[in-house]
Amino acid sequence: MSSSSAVLRQAQSWSESRLPDFVQPLQRPAAIGRAQALAFLRWEKKDLAATERFWRDFGFHIRSSSPQRLSARGAGTSACIVMAQQGRHNRLLGLAFEMSADTDLQRYVQQEGAQWLPPEDLPDGGVGVALQDPSGRSVWLLQGQATLSPLPQRAAVTLQTNDGQTVRRVNQMVRTPLAPAQVLRLGHVVLQTVDFGAMAQWYMRVLGLIPTDVQCLADGLPALCFFRLNLGATPADHHSLVIVGGIEDKYEHSAYEVTDLDALGQGQQVLRAQGHRHMWGIGRHLLGSQLFDYWRDPEGFEYEHYTDGDVFTADFETQYSQLDFGGIWAWGADAPESMKPPKNLRNALRILGLLLRKKISGARLRQMDQALSAPARPWL
Ligand SMILES: [Fe+2]
After folding, report:
1. Residue 2 above 50 pLDDT?
2. Which of 118, 229, 258, 354 is most buried, judging by how many CB atoms fall within 10 Å of its CB?
3. What is the pLDDT of residues 150-196, one digit of tens each?
4. CA 1 to centroid of ligand 1, rounded, Å
């Protein structure tokens, strides 16, 4: 074995039908209904003007803007991918999903205590119900939201890429506009939670989600899951929702698809020029395979641009792997330490509270710490 192959390693994964003995499969409950899209996020912000500036530079198309409310679309057909209302806090209020036509929303009222939403709360018509996930976060389930014609988009550079095997571009240059990365649509959202088991079961039962990739700690118990929508034979994104076990219930990030790698790169230049805070990228994720670039909005909430993600049909088998920090990305800039929970007094007190209330065990905490502390790239 050469010295380089001794340290270069790639993550191992297993199909659900061939799991090693120590890995516990994630149980899948019967679903009440089926989500067919992650529709939009709802925010509360103290300063809507700062949010609007960031959203424009990030590549959203502002649809309406007033001192009380802000909403934006992407270049795709969704009429709304994000909205914000003015308030006393900076926080994510909730998520909204578009449910399939054959989903019976009344079942959520009867079985889950959901409430019908008043029509004036719905940004683009249709009907919907509101309920709370186990962490207390609002989740809206909608049907019949209006759609819009897509906005003009430039052709992807990928169509004319010269690679090692094929020449596609002759007597032409790559000249993409130095402009915000045009956001096409909302792709996924990532939530951290103290109670991974309850949250994972709840989102599978309520939305009919399919686990695409499950990650386990050293004890073999799942601690993180990438969920995709059940669209049958229609390919769905590797994940529309990620639930990650941790020490608090917290929004991690939301991610927005852009046209291609050049949109990521040009968009990064625009955001830098406008003074926004870069967080991580450009690189390629391992699970999901997206090319990514991460930013922070004015209050520090994380937003991701991505392109070239994996898609799977409903019959693709669930994959399992062990959770470690290095497994978040395949290549690219090193992930910043800010992606791990800071070891400060606030978190020490938080952990103490979780231990006292028996929300998490000491053994589980040590395994989480080991998974995040292992050197991400031992050869560097
Ligand atoms: Fe992401």
Report:
1. no
2. 258
3. 999 999 999 999 999 999 999 999 999 999 999 999 999 999 999 99
4. 36
Q: Which residues face 83 on adjacent strands?
A: 42, 71
Ramachandran category for residue 346: left, alpha or beta (phi over 0 → left; psi -120 to 50 → alpha): alpha
Find tokens 């919907």 and name the residue.
128
Say how many Å lie between the CA of residue 281 and the centre of ligand 1: 12
Let me know: does 44 contact 299? Beta carbons within 8 Å: no
CA of 66 to the centre of ligand 1 (A): 30
Query: What mean pLDDT comes out for the span 203-225?
Result: 96
Q: Compute, in angstroms, the gap from residue 240 CA to the centroid of ligand 1.
A: 9
Q: Give 206 Cα–ligand 1 centroid separation in angstroms.
A: 22
Residue 207: its H or E element: helix 196-207
Alpha-helical runs (H) found in 91-195: 106-112
Single pTM value for the model = 0.95
In Å, the largest CA–CA distance within the chain is 68
Q: Are 326 and 315 spatial neighbours (Cβ–Cβ below 8 Å)?
A: no
Q: Are 151 and 75 in contact (CB under 8 A)?
A: yes
Measured CA to CA, the distance from residue 310 to residue 228 in angstroms comes to 11
Query: pLDDT tens-digit profile of 275-324?
Result: 999 999 999 999 999 999 999 999 999 999 999 999 999 999 999 999 98
CA 190–ligand 1 middle distance (angstroms): 7
Complete DSSP assignment for 120-134 = GG-TTSSEEEEEE-T
CA distance 191 to 243: 5
Helix (H, G, I), strand (E, B) or coil at 295: strand
CA–CA separation, 303 and 33 (whole Å): 29
CA distance 276 to 271: 6
pLDDT at 1 over 50: no
Contact (Cβ atoms closer than 8 angstroms) between residue 40 and residue 342: no
**pLDDT at residue number 354:** 92
> Residue 34 Cα, ligand 1 centroid: separation in angstroms?
22
Query: Which residues have their alpha-adjacent CB atom under 5 A from ion ligand 1?
Result: 255, 304
